[in-house]
Amino acid sequence: MAVATPNWSTAADVVVYDVIEKSGQELKRIRADVERLPDLQIELDGLKQEHQKLRAHSKQSEMEGRSLIYLNDIDDKTTAFTIKVKVLRLWRKPNPKKVGEIWAIEMVLMDEKGTKVQATVWSNNFKRHEKMLEENECYTVFKPRVDESNPKFKHFDTKYVLTFNFETTIRKCNNFIGPTYGFELSSFKAIKDGGVSSKFRIDFIGYVEKWFPREDTTTRHGKTSYKMDLILRDLEGIALTLTLWEEYCDQMQEYISKNKAEVHVVLIVQFGSITDYKGNINASNAFNITKLFINERNEKISNFRRSYIAKNSVGRISEITKVMHVIVVGTVRAVNKDNGWYYLGCESCNRKASPSLIFPEDDDGSDDIDMKEVLICTNKDYKRDVVPAIYMYKLSLQVEDSTGTVNLTLFDRDTVKLLGLSAKQMVDKYVKQSSGGDKVTPVESDSFVDKKYAFKIRVGTYNVDKKVDGFSIYKLVDDPAIISTLEKKFDVPVEKNSSMNLPPTASSSQSDATSLPNNNEIMKSNVDLKRTLEDCYDLQNSSSFTPTKSRKSQPEDDVKA
Fold first, then answer.
1. How much is the pTM?
2. Rounded mean pLDDT of 24-49?
């Protein structure tokens, strides 16, 4: 039904009509404005954020302009300064008197030059700073308080520490150009020789050679605790025992459980501790501050792993510049028959015994004396001149792997074990009963050719100083299980034209013999065997994450630079 239009006949009616029209238009505008409120709110929020950014940038610029200094420049007279730092470590210190209450936030800060300092936020300033601070973040900090270090809680050899209090201002920083981790790695030699102070935290890197199962223990203060021990080895072949306590033990065990197939494990301990107990120097974590880098993808670990693996290859032996022992896996390609295969050696020290003429005194004092030929030991440290001597092996072998070839000399002990005959028996068989004399070489020596072995080689002073090829074999093993394990450890490519089918070597007579790698399949097939590399490389745990039995004594550094 149509609505009739009012009849606005009087002036008053017209005025009322205009008012109604204007009110309707105003209502439409108000309605439109209400509908735009969400958009206006978004715009307002954007303006607020932009304002906050500009304000923060202004404060950041103002802070950086306020005497930006490095940590080395701080002293007790420094005030109202700004530092640009990265938080390397952050942990919360509990109140020893109130369970569950946090007393302070402790940090290790590093500036762009790599200098480190301790810093603290006490609980009364948590509201101002706690939400801002995170580990691995970078900040500009204005007006921290400078305090002298407390010797009881001093982690670094620095005179001062910092405190973030109510007057301190902290802002996140996006233009930090300092080191990523700030590692300052100490060598195992420096640690073992006492060249590193046990008062302060240190960093070190090593190859995880073996680990021991978790062990429950009681501290000297009567507290129940637990730990695990590891043996680390550096590029110079020096071993260091590392003890990981509680949460650090848990961290390593978690890595082990998730990476059981991992062979090459390199560990960096940052801010670790050194202990010297009756001259026995070992390493451990320090509670809270220590940080473990287990096989992480950083430059230090990658370079260490490459160098460690490369060191144990035939082609790199000649590049070694320090006296040390090295273990390699290689195949004998030839026996050098031009250098002789035996010699007369001193029964006491195995050194060469050279013939010499002496003039024995006659009992009656007459001058009619016959000269007498005797054997003199060439070892200058041996006091006796005239010695009994026996025939000993000295075979020159050409050994090869995928990286190159090297000349190695195999001596009497291992040759007798592998050939089953003494050098005297061979001399009697081939030299004394042959017209060829010394030039005759036993055909038995050809049994070495095309066979693969694990060798412990000595790089001696003469090799290093004269840069001479040709190294002595200190130990030799032909057991396939051990060779396979070492090949995996050293990433040695398997050669097609080599054999690993020699019978196992005889058990070693040495008292410090160790067993095979602790692998169930290997143990079942070789349970009655002991190997001849036992005192140069602890093969109980050639696979890094196969545990050994609990350790009763500290390991000796049997492979030293």
1. 0.62
2. 77
